[in-house]
Amino acid sequence: MVPCDGCVAARADLLRAAAAESRVVKHRAQRERDALLRAPLDLAATNAALREWVEQIVVDYRAGELALHWRHGPVTSLTYDWATEE
Prior knowledge:
51% helix
C-alpha cells in the first residue's frame, strides 16, 4: 500500500516539528543548568528558566506533596513533608 501524498507531507511536518521541539528542550535544559550553576545563585533567572519547564505546580498541603506538571512530560509528585495525622 502506497501512502497518500498528503500523508507523506503530514508525516514530514511532524518529524520536523519533533526535531525542533527536541532542540527547544535541549536549549531550555541548558538555560536551567546555567542558572543553577551561577554563583551567587540568581533566583530570578533560575525561576524564569524553571517556568519554561513547568506549566503548573500543585501544592497539596495535607499530603505534603508537590505535583509538577511538566510541559514535555508526565506529572511528577514530590513529597516535601511527611503528612501527620491531626
